[in-house]
């Protein structure tokens, strides 16, 4: 375990001069003429008063000294403290792992959205047996479908805030009544605000490819009041930020399930589950100081779907658990959404949802359009 000491000597109130030493950060800034010393180690802060400091350090001047010790498993890079965004065990704003907007979290969400949550505009058709002005009349059966989903959100992790923008493009091709292939391209752009000395915004770019093979265990032809789809998937994700000295590529293996039960003509219950296994590697030389990180994520939830003619409303609750060490090792997602079928080939969906976890909150909105042909 290596230690890094950050020393800040405050002398006056109106100016601040940061100075970089070999393995230390020194910042001189103006405050009042009092002496106070704090030592932080393993999330525990120790405070020493003026008398203790004068005895220990012989400082009799009218100034204050703040001494902070921090530990890490790897040497500190040239972008301190932005580089801390890579260490998911300690930082709830980490972009590599450890929260819903990290690389592992975004990949897990993409799999859950496509394969654990039911598409409200299509699942109601699976149970519809009569014609009329319902979703069944206007929904598309087709062997292929293309979607475009655009999302925007914000998050607060500890004292760090940020924004997330995403575009996801899934394409599905059905081979038989029960077997299909679905390829999804998730792209994202994250801004972590006011990080480092002096504070500045950190840009993080990411993208990937997820390919799944959904298998419909029960379909309409089985004449049962439930549907069940199991979707094994493989994926690859790249995420990089030159600002924060963070870079990683991640391979993923996953399996997702959604089980839908028709309670009555106006209410469908979906049970969604997903397990993602993630293996991360360093991306080029930029991440030479970032440790390799593997993570496993388990997601379980329920979704309530209410079809109303061409409209379909739904609500869902998902519980996410990270099995390896992480600053945010669990969080809950609460969402509301609605869908509308314009024709047999075009539908539109809107979702709003929030993630709530220890020292972490995120809020997002997503709109998606699907074309069947």
Topology:
Layout (H helix, E strand, L loop, with lengths): L1 E9 L5 E5 L3 E6 L7 E5 L2 E5 L1 H8 L6 E9 L30 H14 L3 H8 L7 H4 L5 E14 L2 E15 L5 E16 L4 E13 L2 E4 L7 E16 L4 E19 L2 E16 L11 E15 L2 E12 L7 E12 L4 E12 L2 E13 L1
Parallel strand pairs: 1-3
Antiparallel strand pairs: 1-6, 2-3, 4-5, 7-8, 7-19, 8-9, 9-10, 10-12, 11-12, 12-13, 13-14, 14-15, 15-16, 16-17, 17-18, 18-19
Explain this structure.
By secondary structure, the chain is mainly beta. The protein has four helices and 19 strands. It is 9% helix and 58% strand. The strands form three sheets. It has a twelve-stranded antiparallel β-barrel. A four-stranded mixed beta sheet has the order 2-3-1-6, with no helix packed on it. A two-stranded antiparallel ribbon has the order 4-5.
Explain briefly what this protein structure is:
With 373 residues, the protein is mainly beta. The protein has four helices and 19 strands.
Strand content: over 45%
Side by side, the strands of the main sheet go 7-8-9-10-12-13-14-15-16-17-18-19
Derived from helix and strand composition plus strand pairing, the structural class reads mainly beta
Shape: globular
Portion of residues in helices? Answer: under 10%
Q: SSE string, helix = H, strand = E?
A: EEEEEHEHHHEEEEEEEEEEEEE
Largest sheet: 12 strands, antiparallel, barrel
Q: Ends: how far apart?
A: 58 Å
**Rg of Cα set:** 25 Å
Low-confidence parts, pLDDT < 50 over ≥5 residues?
1-82, 130-141
Number of strands: 19
Separate helix tally: 4
Indicate the mean pLDDT: 75
